[in-house]
C-alpha cells in the first residue's frame, strides 16, 4: 500500500488536536496489506522469542492486535510532512512500533522472570519499560540494529502509553502505541463516542481480532483491580481507572 516515506516525529498529545492536524481517512485495510509493511521487523526475532516466553496467549494477542491497529492508523492519514516538524522515516517508525507494541506488556506478565525483576514493585508501565530497555540494549546495541535515541523512544512510549496527556507533544511512536492500546482495551469510544472510527475502519479491526482473538479480556480488568489495590499510586490510576470501573 502507498505510504509516505516519512512521518511527523512529534504530534499533539491531545486527541482532538491530533485530529485537527491530520487528514485521517479510514479505509478497510486487509491484514495481508498491513503485513506487507513488516519487512523491517524480521531481524528482531530475539524480542519475539522473549515475548512468547513471558506472555500468556491473552497478552501476546493483545500486543499483536495493538501492532496491527497502529499500522492501520499510520496508514490512514497519520501526520506527515507538517511544516517545521522533524520527520522520521517510515521503516524506522515500523520497526520501533513493532518493538514497542510487542514489549509493552512486560509489566503485566506473571512469568517468574517478570515478577522477580527488581522493578516489579514499580507501576507496571515503568516496570515493563525498564525490562524492555534492558532487553533492547543487551540484544541490539552491539550489532547497531538500534541506537540510543531509538531505544529511549521505545522505552518512554511503553512507560507513558496509559497516560493520555491534554497538553504538549508526544512522539509518533508514543501516540500510536497509546491509540492502539486504548482502542484494544476501551473500544471505539476510548476518546469519546465512536472516536476511534475516525482513525481505523471497523472491518480492519474485525479481521485483526479474528487473527488474534480477544479471549478472556476479564483477565485485564482483574489484573488492573489487583494493581490498583496493591499500588494505589500507580500511573494508570491517575488516567484510566474511570474507563475500567
Automatic annotation (TrEMBL):
<protein>
    <recommendedName>
        <fullName>HD domain-containing protein</fullName>
    </recommendedName>
</protein>
